[in-house]
Amino acid sequence: MSIHSAAANKHLLSPAGSPAGEHFVRDPGPAFRPRQSTDKQVTQMDQASQVLSQATAPSANVETVDVDAVNKKEERSLYKARVKIYPKRAKGVFRKLKWLVMAITLAIYYIAPWIRWDRGLNAPDQAILIDFPTRRFYFFFIEIWPEEVYYLTGLLIIAALLLFLVTSLAGRVWCGYTCPQTVWTDLFIWVERLVEGDRSARIRLDKAPLSIGKVARKTVKHVLWILIGMATGGAWIFYFADAPSLFVDLFTLQAPIVAYSTVAVLTATTYIFGGMMREQVCTFMCPWPRIQGALVDEDSLIVSYKEDRGEQRAPFRKDMDWETRGDCIDCNQCVAVCPMGIDIRDGQQLECIHCALCIDACNDVMTRIDRPLNLISYDTYVNHERRAAGEPEQKPRIFRARTVIYAALIAIVGLIMLATLITRSTLDINILHDRNPLFVKLSDGGIRNGYTIKILNKQHEVRHFRIAVDGLENALISVVGLDGTTGLAVPADRLAQFRVFVAVPAANAPDGRADFDFIVTDLDDGNIAVNDTVFRGPEQ
């Protein structure tokens, strides 16, 4: 992601102008509207900036960056070639937080498949495993069967509601900190900075003529990016098979072709999205920036520029009167560090991912010039309006209608899932009644019905069962292929089905239909499963 200077961007902009950028549906109000500057003001600012760089900047130790926002709404065009963004390194609380989140998320992604969990004999010992051959999902002590897909549905519902809740409270913090696109892009930018240097060094390298040094640096960078992409794809497939075994098979060329193809696809997508497209994925491919417009409200905390305090802007001088001007010295540090190539001082924009790096950059400048911090900060639309009206700020309202509803729905779905998980049985049965014929009349006048009983053994050991019925007087049970109804063996982690006949003497034959229960008892631990069904007979 790069930021070009204003001069370098002039020949790339559409001569006819470009459409305004996308904003929230709500009118942002005067505090959020972009500042309009005249040509005379711009000239005066340029002259003042030169004075700053030549005279006062060294004493204040504040660099004025010659930079223009690539995604500036007045200059955006869908028919313009992409302008590379060169984000400058930022230092501060939010930058440290991003490093921490990136380290945690990447560690979880790459390390999780290698964690072991002892489930006993006949069970995989990988803590997190999506086992397609056995159609099973393992997560530490939790084991999800295909018949329990509703647990995955519940997790998706909770994840969506949690995202809605977080967005309502603090805007696009998911995008700025934990989204995979952001995490891997941050990693790729770190590698780029490590190999090529910070913003100014990268710009000089790109503008420099072709040389051995330039080719070497570019080659090293892209090789490291590809290796990261390969590690990303490799870690992904480890979630679907035993990680140590698959790792050996990959390098001995014994792995299935689907493993190599998956690694190749994920390597390419990680390399292209994280290394090449970067902010374009967030701006043009991701639907979330549009969805967030319906989730944030006037009480949502969003990264904002305090126009009432920052305007009018002017370069910094030692003897300036802060009473007659704003705190913004127009150093453009907030623009230079932005990975999305926007100027937060232009107001809220859908391209902003709320990474808050502009806050760190601005606070660093405020510290250097001895002005109050948080000229750019997480703020609410309500407080912008209150400051514009000369009223005191109010604390953000965490508990409001939409946040309470989202939190309540998350709690309800979570409690339902927890209750079903705690009370679920390791034994399930399913009864299928024969449809053709519904019943058979025996030679002695008795009535016989046929059933298919499916017994699901969710334990990792062979279990033996006994079948009985309740609700049919003098009923006789027979299992095809077995002597008696005791000792039905079901392998570990398997579904077994048995053909069962139930016969009722003529004297006890029901008229039409009768309800009764099949009772399946585990002979080892006494666990019982009951399933109701019907017995069909001739209507009198």
What layout of secondary structure does this protein have?
Elements: H1 6-9, H2 39-60, H3 93-111, E1 128-131, E2 136-139, E3 142-144, H4 150-170, H5 173-178, H6 180-196, H7 199-207, H8 212-237, H9 243-251, H10 257-277, H11 279-285, H12 288-292, E4 302-305, H13 307-310, H14 333-336, H15 357-368, E5 376-379, H16 381-388, H17 401-423, E6 427-433, E7 440-441, E8 447-457, E9 463-470, E10 476-479, E11 486-490, E12 495-504, E13 513-522, E14 528-536
Antiparallel strand pairs: 1-2, 2-3, 4-5, 6-8, 7-8, 8-12, 9-11, 9-13, 10-12, 13-14
Provide a descriptive summary of the structure in words.
The protein is of the alpha+beta class. The protein has three domains: 6-84 and 291-388, no CATH class; 93-158 and 170-286, no CATH class; 427-536, Sandwich (Immunoglobulin-like), CATH 2.60.40. 40% of the residues lie in helices and 16% in strands. It is built from 17 helices and 14 strands. It has helices at 6-9, 39-60, 93-111, 150-170, 173-178, 180-196, 199-207, 212-237, 243-251, 257-277, 279-285, 288-292, 307-310, 333-336, 357-368, 381-388, 401-423; strands at residues 128-131, 136-139, 142-144, 302-305, 376-379, 427-433, 440-441, 447-457, 463-470, 476-479, 486-490, 495-504, 513-522, 528-536. The strands form four sheets. Strands 6, 7, 8, 10 and 12 form a five-stranded antiparallel β-sheet that branches. Strand 13 and strand 14 form a beta hairpin. The model is unreliable at 1-59 (pLDDT under 50).
